[in-house]
């Protein structure tokens, strides 16, 4: 077998080795320290350097975290992406055990660190990276253990993300389809950027080893099955699955089949780079009166269906940095001046669809500043909101089946939520 890493090192910010685990005996810690110190001296800012470097027949892959660097070294032709992913998973496991991963927490827990490194990688090959499985047989206070514990079955079978013997009196599955809308509009009202970043978030409380099958309104799947496309079908793109999903099955017939981990996890993430109609449109007009006061008129309009409603809407409208004596009136919700942000915060608890509301504000300005010095700020209007039971992409869960040998019938719960991501309008 080829492609294994030779050793794993944890370095401090000066390039000194704090901990190392030698798996193959062909890269020493002194060699790694010499390379990393030279890299620090040559580059100055190590974060500006890429995560992969090569010197004297050794490939180094490293990532920063707080005041340490995690690095692998390999003489063989290895998969760099796989090892970088392993380093990120290593950070997650350490944080699970120590809360915060930094130099001090490593020094306080070096015994547990070596135990984890021995279990997570074997002879240079990544093995188990699920923190909840590792925690079943590697305890933080491992030095107190008197009896030798057997590793859980999850370590010895193909499903390393789920333990056997899980039991619930009430078997339930919760699936949240969450979409974040990113929008950027220029001062002329033209959309410069619009995309949707979505995620299928699951919480499973299921007994045994259930087999789950999820069906979406995927255009490719419906066309392959020869079904008529009723309603809206979507083209999934930029998909990223949790490791529990059988990728070969998805590539062959677009079926999302998996044995889920216990508890919460992200089953799938996706991105749609489509032209998105602004869900909430905001217009603003600013009128300056000499050097004494300024009036701001803001109009917000919801552009989604009437039976839907946006909750917890926050519209942040920039104001002059020297504004004083605010007088604000709104037709819906409430607004206040936030001088620490140089902005007005307009909060609407529930904003129904296809509705328009207004905000009017007047601020006093100091007369000692000239017209040139008191130019308007160019900060954009930003929005935060949440629309339940609604998705921009039109994604739908057609079915969610759970099959387990005991034959229980779980309760599936599915809900849809659309939220504002980076939602900005440069209209002032």
UniProtKB/TrEMBL annotation:
A matching Pfam family: Adap_comp_sub
Compartment(s) of residence: Cytoplasmic vesicle, Clathrin-coated vesicle membrane
Ranges for domain MHD: 170-426
Domain of life the protein comes from: Eukaryota
Predominant cellular place of this UniProt entry's protein: membrane
Keyword terms of this UniProt record: Cytoplasmic vesicle, Membrane, Protein transport, Transport
GO cellular component, one term: clathrin adaptor complex
One biological process term in Gene Ontology: intracellular protein transport
Family: Belongs to the adaptor complexes medium subunit family.
Complexes and interactors: Adaptor protein complex 1 (AP-1) is a heterotetramer composed of two large adaptins (gamma-type subunit and beta-type subunit), a medium adaptin (mu-type subunit) and a small adaptin (sigma-type subunit).
Official protein name in the record: AP-1 complex subunit mu-2
